[in-house]
Amino acid sequence: MSADPAADPFSDPTAGPAQLANRLAKVQKERRRWAPSVGATCWRIYEKDLPDQPLIVDWYDGVAVVWLLDRTRNETEADEERWAGEVLAAVQRGLKLAAEHVFVKRRRRQKDRQEGGQYQRTGDAGVERIVTEAGLRFMVNCSDYLDTGLFLDHRPLRARVRADARDRRVLNLFAYTGSFTVHARAGGARATTTVDLSNTYLTWAERNLALNGFAPDDQHTIVRADCLRWLTEAKPAAYDLIVCDPPAFSNSTAMRDSFAVDRDHGRLLAACRRLLAPGGTLWFSCNLRGFTLTTPPPGLVVEDCSAWTVPADFRNRKIHQCWRLTAGS
Ligand SMILES: C[S@@+](CC[C@H](N)C(=O)[O-])C[C@H]1O[C@@H](n2cnc3c(N)ncnc32)[C@H](O)[C@@H]1O
Q1: Could you tell me the distance, in angstroms and rounded to a whole number, from the CA of residue 93 to the centre of ligand 1?
Q2: Which residues of the chain have pLDDT under 70?
Q3: Cβ < 6 Å from ligand 1: which residues?
Q4: Largest CB tally within 10 Å, which of 89, 206, 231, 304?
Q5: Which one of 250, 265, 267, 284 would you pick to mutate in the ligand 1 pocket, going by the greatest count of ligand atoms within 8 A of its CB?
């Protein structure tokens, strides 16, 4: 008599749950060997590796954060719930985790994001963890937002910013939880300016800075502002290194106009260019699928760096695109 798959979803080793669990276990073993090379306790384990298991699994130092993606089949809600249950069981089994250490999220559709959904709270359990990247510490929140507070795909660019920051004046635009600023300060930046629209994320950025022994002062400021507006009012040629990693779309009530990166990147980059000192570098990153950099400002040398800014633990080599724009000296 064959085992009942409803009672034990792993009874059939060729079925989705067993394959997913095996895949997670295998990749996690590889990641554990690789992670010391980047000094990280957080990494991506799984991203749509198996065709019938469209999900993402990230590891944050002892917990798994799982994003369920849309399945192509026209499913009922009950089917979706059953699948979510199977995924939870497979992640627990593959990564040897208790259920309370697995956080399952559902990516909302673009429409919700355009209404500001991506940066809103999704819960209030307050499950926080400290993770490490290149010897620096970051607070992540596994339970309350769609994103955790640390975008893993920018690990290589953060390392590069740190390596280039010594004695530089660094501007971090759309700073979110300030991870680029933490790296810039660790790299010996002379001054940093961290700009974001959200008080929540700026408070989080201050916590991340404090975790690494840094506090705001005259040279290192945190500014709550609409970047588009702030850029037009800031002093020209004041920065040697600018990181500009905007969301694909933003339309907060605190903004004068909505922002869409495909439509507005020309004026955003021109405004950044005005603030760049001679010989300075502007890093521009975009995670909008299919984005084309159509209007780089004149007078900057443009280099596509996406091949190395996407880290080795990401299967999706198009998770973001990233350019280095350099001003002549
Ligand atoms: C994609 S995240 C940026 C990620 C960040 N660069 C990082 O790597 O950690 C988007 C951030 O942009 C902020 N934001 C959105 N629109 C903004 C605006 N017009 N001005 C300033 N910040 C904005 C949000 O509050 C959020 O923190």
Answers
A1: 35
A2: 1-6, 73, 108-123
A3: 119, 151, 154, 174, 176-177, 179, 196-198, 201, 226-228, 245, 247, 250, 255, 259
A4: 231
A5: 250
Output the pTM of the full model.
0.93
Spacing of C-alpha 193 from chain mean position: 20
Query: Structure tokens of 302?
Result: 């443009």
Domains and CATH numbers, the chain: 16-108 (3.30.750.80), 151-327 (3.40.50.150)
Neighbours of 88 (CB within 10 A): 19
pLDDT at site 215: 97
The sheet that has 55-60: what strands, in order across it?
A: 42-47, 55-60, 63-68, 102-106
Angle of CA points 78, 79, 82, to nearest 5°: 85
- pLDDT at position 111: 42
Q: Rounded to an integer, what distance in angstroms lies between the CA atom of residue 276 and that of residue 329? A: 11
